[in-house]
Design a protein that fits this description.
By secondary structure, the protein is α/β, with parallel strands linked by helices. The protein is built from 9 helices and 10 strands.
């Protein structure tokens, strides 16, 4: 088995009296695609924010490549090799697709073009972002993240709002990204997508990890069914 690239150890995050994360342990192995699921408000995005430096954990450690990064700034964490997308995309609407991706590529036009080609948006590279479809914006978000050359890619609900054809296309893209050596931690509500693509799934409920296993086992886990799935998920 590949060694852990990311290790979250007893990560806790409180907002006043609200404990969004409560002692979460999570490891992501190098070259793996790990899914993170759970009900709304279970702490998934908060964990992504703690890993990427947008939040500082109240307690606990986040180790990336063996280094504790909890005190690092978000831009430093990005330079170390962690990139992310956002649940609500945040593009520069007046800029073109190419210009948006060039920002993440530190102005490197040629590399930005490669990232755009990788996600299948070459034909609209000169279109202003405000004129894109929602699916195209999601793909551009992934291109922007890839433009920072991440070792670890954090995805936050990149399938949300997509139709079945778009979901299948996006799954194929993520599998290709992983095959080129990028490790992926993926928060998602679209079970058809995440159950099909990931190696393992971790489940959060009320800020605690309640299960972690391969998709087939998670789909039949009684705790997960009661907390989130509602019924057994047929793979």
């Amino acid at each position: 088995m590949n060694k852990p690239l990311l290790e979250c150890k007893a990560v806790t995050k409180s907002f006043g009296k609200l404990m969004a994360l409560n002692g979460v342990d999570l490891s992501v192995n190098e070259g793996e695609m790990l899914g993170l699921i759970g009900p709304n408000g279970s702490g998934k995005t908060t964990l992504i924010n703690c890993i990427s430096g947008f939040y500082k954990p109240t307690s606990g450690n986040v180790n990336f490549m063996g280094e504790n990064i909890v005190k690092s700034k978000s831009y430093s964490i990005c330079k170390m090799g962690i990139a992310r997308t956002f649940q609500i995309p945040r593009p520069f609407l007046r800029l073109t697709v190419l210009e948006n991706v060039m920002v993440s590529a530190s102005g490197d036009r040629n590399f930005a073009l490669k990232c755009i080609e990788r996600v299948g948006l070459s034909e609209i590279k000169d279109v202003q972002t405000k004129n894109l479809t929602f699916h195209q914006i999601r793909l551009m978000e992934i291109a922007r993240a890839l433009a920072s050359k991440p070792k670890l890619l954090l995805l936050d609900e990149v399938m949300s709002g997509l139709n079945p054809v778009e979901i299948d296309e996006s799954i194929k893209l993520l599998e290709e990204v992983r095959e080129t050596g990028t490790t992926i931690l993926w928060v998602e509500h679209v079970m058809r997508a995440i159950m099909k693509a990931v190696d393992r799934i971790a489940v959060l409920q009320e800020g605690k990890k309640i299960a972690e296993d391969k998709p087939k086992q998670i789909a039949n886990d009684e705790k997960v069914i009661a907390a989130y799935l509602g019924e057994r998920y047929i793979l």
